[in-house]
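Figure 6 in text form: structure in, sequence out.
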């Protein structure tokens, strides 16, 4: 039996998914997420084609306990830590939600001239801004990509420095850290999309359960458990999969790096306003593309339309190289 929410105890109402060993301090009535494509939810989608992902799944679960629960998601694919902390975090802090989540820095790590000291400082400033305005703040230690793509071990020292910054905000500011770096289940290619750098629906679903657990809720399933064994693709299939990946995903990423462009150019946040889930969906339908910039004109978020990524989860078992850096091919 889960613990009662303190605010609801007098009504003898219990939270059905709060674990006995962890106290849920207070109801969470609002949630704002900021970050890059990991938090935007690519390439997982709602039935109508809008990006979904772990943050939306967390919001849907929390909304089940609070009829007036509100949610905003300001994350945009390809964003660097400075953009997340400089543009998205101030807008999120101004909303003063009960819960905020942020993730970033991996896009910076993938760039050769990245100043990691500056990126870590930006991460810590982002955390400080959010913790000053929000009751609870969540962030992540990134997945360990080295077993999946050994060729990217050269980024390991940079990632380690970024992880040290995450540990500092946990110690100094009380940020809740979901440590995905130690979870070997994310070595499974079935948790990843065909581009090998974004999570599939199953991957997002497991991250959502990890966040809920960190917040003091009991997951609905064992999100750390390995998937059932799958037949490994043959050598020919694997080689063909690699060639398709190079043409469809890696080559376009190289082109963007050479031209100084980003997959996030012209993309707006999918949920820019702190609104109830259903109300935002109706607003999206009225606005056509499902994106608008109301209330964000002063925080540096542009107002062009949404870029389609055209990704799906088919064939993920044929990706032997797996994930590396969450937005590298974004």
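Output sequence:
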């Amino acid at each position: 039996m889960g613990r009662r929410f303190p605010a609801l105890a007098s009504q003898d109402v219990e939270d059905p998914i709060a674990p006995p060993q962890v106290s849920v301090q207070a109801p969470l009535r609002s949630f704002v997420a900021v970050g890059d494509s990991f938090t935007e939810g690519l390439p997982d989608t709602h039935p109508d084609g809008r990006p979904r992902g772990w943050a939306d799944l967390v919001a849907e679960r929390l909304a089940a306990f609070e009829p007036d629960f509100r949610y905003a998601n300001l994350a945009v694919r390809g964003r660097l830590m400075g953009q997340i902390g400089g543009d998205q975090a101030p807008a999120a802090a101004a909303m003063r939600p009960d819960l905020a989540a942020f993730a970033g820095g991996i896009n910076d790590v993938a760039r050769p001239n990245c100043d990691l000291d500056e990126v870590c400082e930006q991460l810590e400033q982002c955390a400080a801004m959010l913790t000053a305005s929000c009751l609870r703040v969540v962030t992540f230690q990134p997945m360990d990509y080295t077993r999946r793509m050994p060729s990217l071990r050269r980024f390991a020292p940079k990632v380690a420095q970024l992880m040290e910054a995450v540990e500092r905000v946990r110690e100094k500011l009380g940020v809740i850290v979901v440590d995905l770096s130690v979870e070997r289940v994310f070595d499974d290619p079935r948790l990843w999309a065909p581009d090998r750098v974004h999570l599939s629906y199953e991957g997002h679903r497991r991250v959502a359960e990890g966040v809920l657990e960190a917040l003091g809720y009991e997951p609905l399933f064992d999100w750390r458990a390995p998937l059932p064994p799958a037949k490994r693709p043959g050598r020919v299939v694997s080689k063909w999969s690699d060639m398709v990946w190079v043409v469809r995903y890696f080559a376009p990423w190289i082109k963007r790096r050479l031209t100084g462009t980003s997959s996030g150019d012209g993309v707006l946040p999918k949920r820019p306003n702190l609104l109830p889930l259903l109300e935002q969906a109706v607003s999206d339908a009225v606005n056509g593309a499902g994106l608008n910039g109301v209330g964000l004109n002063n925080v540096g978020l542009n107002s062009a339309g949404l870029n389609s990524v055209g990704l799906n989860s088919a064939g993920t078992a044929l990706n032997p190289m797996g994930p590396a850096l969450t937005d590298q091919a974004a």
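Caption detail: The mean pLDDT is 79.
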